[in-house]
Amino acid sequence: xxxxxxxxxxxxxRRPAGRVTDADLEQVTEAIPALGPGQALVRxxxxxLDPSNRIWMSEMRSYMDPVPLDAVMRGLGVGQxxxxxxxxxPVGSLVLGWTGFQEYAVMDDATDEGPYxxxxxxxxxxxxxxxxxxxxxxxxxxxxxxDIGKVAAGDTVVISAAAGAVGSIAGQLAKARGARTVGxxxxxAKCRHVVEGLGFDVCVDYKSGDFAQQLAxxxxxxxxxxxxxxxxxxxxxxxxxxxxxxxxxxxGMISQYEAxxxxxSWAGQLAIGQLIMRRATMTGYLVLDxxxxxxxxxxxxxxxxxxxxxHSDETVVDGFENALDCMNSLFDGTNxxxxxxxxxxxxxxxPGGDA
Length: 355
What we know:
355 residues, alpha/beta, Quinone Oxidoreductase, Chain A, domain 1, Rossmann fold, 2 domains, seven-stranded mixed beta sheet, six-stranded parallel beta sheet, 23% helix, 24% strand, oxidoreductase activity, acting on the CH-CH group of donors, NAD or NADP as acceptor, EC 1.-.-.-, ER
């Protein structure tokens, strides 16, 4: 394939207030620089859309620094090496890394936010799955269920955002361990998919007028593990049903990520005192702290997928120009499973295998 002279990118021009606009995230066309020693050029094929993207656009206190104004928007992607000055990443290789929101990224260990990973050839699963069920979202679910929640047979596990990228995998992992899984999702169609498509025992619609009663009916014996992705009033309702010694797995708080100042939406949980009353624990965790567990997690997840015991949902949006709308849709609850932006397909032969 021929390499173009320029590449499209999204640069952060200002901190958003609420929804992200094109005044916040501006699409620009920039020249692709010549490669230097130790660099490679990666053509981005898929971009991962995650709630964390919205955190990094703000000045919210986080596990990574805010994206500097005028910088290319931070993001994980999978892509193909199209030019290389590195023996370990030959042309044609498929890779995973911090590509950012740009069509072409220069791989440089001295300046990148983290090292790129060379994907296996041939691929054991579709390329998109390495940003989803076999990537950081699937591994996040695995760690939360196995390590933090310590889910056991007979537990009642409540999972918010159950139709989302992490929640959908977490529920299936809990079910595979013999737990009773209760999902929380928005709308009758999503709740139906969570039960019929993902195998949860029941799913409660948080958009319904009687959500609190639905939840109470769904957990008559209380909650042993709360796998929390949403926070806010939804989490408060779940906390009111904790059993003695329950474990709250604090994976995400997506209801609170759109504050323009990084603070105003953090109103706190009204029912947090239930942790005392029920002698429960609440543990926050990050997948990036457990890189040594990635091979184990991927092997386990791939096994379940290969045996047909786990289903991977993806919502794929085509076209780089749709990145902004795609990001905003994360907070509308419209996507099912992992949300991805597809920029293209591999065009070069993959060393050692096929794309």
